[in-house]
Amino acid sequence: METIQSQVDELISQMTPAEKAGQLTQYFYFRLPPGAEPGLDFDAEQQPRMVESAVGEGGAGSLLFVTDPAEINRLQRLALEGNRLGIPLLFGFDVIHGLRTILPVPIAMAASWDPQTIERGQSVAAREARAVGIHWTFAPMVDIARDPRWGRIVEGAGEDPYLGAAVAVAQVRGFQGGELGSPESVIAGPKHFAGYGGALGGRDYDEVNLSDSELWNVYFPPFKAAVDAGAGNVMTAYMGLNGIPAGGNRWLFTEVLRELWGFKGFVVSDANVVRSLVTHGFAADLTDAAARAVNAGVDMEMAVSDAAYAHLPEALESGAASPEAVDASVRRVLEAKIRMGLFDAPYVDEDRAREVLADPAHRDVARIAAERSAVLLRNEDDLLPLDASSVSSIAVIGPLADSKRDTIGPWVFDFDLDETVTVLEGIRAKAGDGVRVDHARGIRVVQREFPSMFDMFGRNRPSDPDGFDEEAEFQQAVDLARGSDVAVVVVGEWQNMIGEAASRSSLELPGRQLELLQAVVETGTPVVLLVMNGRPLDLRWAAAHVPAILDIWYPGTHGGAAVANLLFGEVAPGGKLPFSWPRTVGQVPMVYAHARSHEPENQGRRYWDEASTPLFPFGYGLSYGRFEYANLSVDQPATTSGGTVTVSVEVTNAGDREADEVVQLYLGQRYGSALRPVRELKGFQRISLSPGESRTLEFRVGPNERRYWNAAVRDWVSDPSTFDVWVGGDSTAELATSFEVTQE
Ligand code: BGC
User: I need a surface site. Which of 18, 175, 320, 564 has the fewest CB within 10 A?
Assistant: First the structure.
């Protein structure tokens, strides 16, 4: 530590204000496919030239969006040659759910409720990223999302702070390994601090207004957990939170993150966030914006061009930017570079990179993650798993069923479609020679109404085969279903309909998908519905008419193989929903952990035209096993506010197949010094049980599980009260017990 500090001191003492500003500036470096339209506000030819000259003059400390190891080496050489102090570049990138090997999307990984699977997945992502020369990932996204209209719900862990925190920790561990700088690891950057998921109306980038209680009890905990797990970086949000834009919010980055939580890493702005302090009407000009951001504790600016931090020398000169703040930021950035071993080994071995990217073990990790993420939403009369010996023909229907690009989902750039396994391919490979597997697309792909910001990368926009005749194809799909033993219909959203800048005002299945599904169901052939999604969709009709529904999300590189294993019962689905699945967009936002409230006569019904319950509750997911819960008990009837009780429960698989269950513990405080949610998740364990096997599980419920932020006293409190405990397979669990907490 001391040597790192003295190395940093030595460097800082020699740096000019311009060199310091350079270290605090990160540029995008895009290499777009020929002829691509950037779509963003920059010149695709001129921008890389500008960045190269900045790099060559010490005007950039970090780059993002370069994934080719040869390019990384070339740019690193440029930086080292142009930098009199020999300070290397730090390369960052959005390795959100894999680099070459694509894992299921983050919301799917969260649906595994399995920290080990999540950690293993992100360690593969880190291994691939580091092998190509990336040192830092802009992940995990730990923003709580309670409004599925917001497209970025797909990047996070859903609605719940407890699950969100557990998933955040697993991801930080996966990315960073044992500690910052471990071999084959990258720096993790939880984002977007803070509150981004609360965008008004679910509209991406819109302002966020969160109560004190929501902020501390719901939106902060996953960040705090990621920081406690040692995350080396944090990224700012874009928007204003309660009236203060993230890039200028000193309270967030200095008082909460550093002073209160002890965060030791560096903070990066989201893209152009510092510049946009001017757009927000918060800063007068770029110099003012730079001063406000650096004074607030934003160490590095991420910019496409015209970085505001290039004006830091002026801001220092005029006294607007604090020299201590600037030096502290430079210190943090240099420390990260030293810890990552960049001064000793700035270049990357290109041959080794190729080997690591091709490692077949990585594909297995992705397949297993997809198997463990799928959520079985309906299974009437045990239609699933399919019995391969009694099925001789399968109709696989829908354009998503054989779309490689959609199978791997949004936020991926470095994928290899040749090795991506679609649902159709997976079923074909698994079903074997005796089973006829045919495919009909049925309908056209659906295009977004406005272009996606990722269209510029190519291969992102879906298309129909040449000469596609929708009427004929629709009929062919229905005929195929009629003549088959079972129909597997794949519906959902095309991957570019979800993600950043991809909010929707509706949750309906896009295009004619519902119509196609209805026509197939009408044939009388049993239908298995596979849903490819990153947000809940309006499945009211399907939930009443389709016997089997499996949510496969965007399952990743070997997603189709995973789906086939699930359909044929090689593995049993054990995932659970990380959000409450609304019936219709009009119910949004809908969370299970809502406060107790006035109960009028109409039995809790809040809409006259729709139920007030979700279509599928938070934590829900069926299985091929049948789980029974019994003997729920607490080891002591009462404890004091500092005390811990142990809850135990016996879980039995009364079915006839080995299967996984996610056992969930919910806690509710009956009375106290503030309104508390009706119940909150405070423990979970994913277990595998053989047929007939029983296991007794224990959960410890201590002060951390009971304390909460009280907005009246503006502090954490722990109330004496009666606490109810429910344990079961989802958030509507009824098996209950209780215990008392008395004053210390
Ligand atoms: C997103 C970030 C992302 C960054 C760099 C921004 O538009 O909000 O989440 O890390 O771009 O790609």
Answer: 18
Contact 374, 490 (CB under 8 A): no
pLDDT tens for each residue of 540-582? 999 999 999 999 999 999 999 999 999 999 999 999 999 999 9
Q: Which two tokens stand for residue 180?
A: 């910052």
Which letter does DSSP use for residue 271 in this model? T
Question: In the prediction, which pLDDT does 458 show?
Answer: 78
| Catalytic member of 147, 160, 204, 270 | 270
* DSSP 8-state code for residue 585: G
Tell me if residue 720 falls in helix, strand or coil. coil
| C-beta neighbour count of 142 within 10 angstroms | 34
- Contact partners, residue 33, CB within 8 Å, separation at least 6: 457, 458
Query: What are the pLDDT digits (tens) for 200-210?
Result: 999 999 999 99
Distance CA 447, CA 533 (A): 15
509: which DSSP letter? Answer: P
Distances in whole angstroms, Cα of residue 679 to Cα of each of 221, 592, 604, 676, 723: 17, 8, 16, 8, 10
Q: In the structure, how many helices (H) and strands (E) does the chain have? A: 23, 26
Report whether 405 contacts 461 (CB < 8 A). no
Q: Is the beta carbon of 705 within 6 A of some atom in ligand 1?
A: no
Rounded to 5 degrees, what angle do the CA atoms 12, 189, 167 make?
150
Asked whether 191 lines ligand 1 (CB < 6 A), one says yes
CA-139 nearest atom, ligand 1: 10
Mutual angle of helices 115-132 and 69-82, in 10-degree steps: 60
Q: Please check whether residue 88 is in contact with residue 537, taking contact to mean a CB–CB distance below 8 angstroms.
A: no
Kindly give the distance from the C-alpha atom of residue 225 to the centroid of ligand 1, in angstroms, as a whole number. Answer: 21
Inter-residue contact 232 to 181 (CB < 8 Å): no
613 contacts: CB under 8 Å, gap ≥ 6: none
Domains of the chain: 21-354 (3.20.20.300), 372-587 (3.40.50.1700), 627-742 (2.60.40.10)
Q: Contact 274/253 with Cβ under 8 angstroms?
A: no
pLDDT tens readout for residues 132-181: 999 999 999 999 999 999 999 999 999 999 999 999 999 999 999 988 99
Q: Helix (H, G, I), strand (E, B), or coil: what is residue 654?
A: coil
pLDDT at residue 603 tops 90: no
Question: If we measure between CA atoms, which residue out of 439, 440, 435 comes closest to residue 393?
Answer: 435
Instruction: Please tell me if the CB atom of residue 94 comes closer than 6 angstroms to any atom of ligand 1.
Output: yes
362-373 burial string, b = 16+ CB within 10 Å, else e? Answer: bbebbbbbbbbb
DSSP per-residue string spanning 173-209: HHHH-SSTT-TT--EE--B-BTTGGG-GGG-TT--B-
SS3 sequence of 368-395: HHHHHHCEEEEEHHHCCCCCCCCCCEEE
**Residue of 112, 140, 108, 116 whose CA lies nearest to 222:** 140
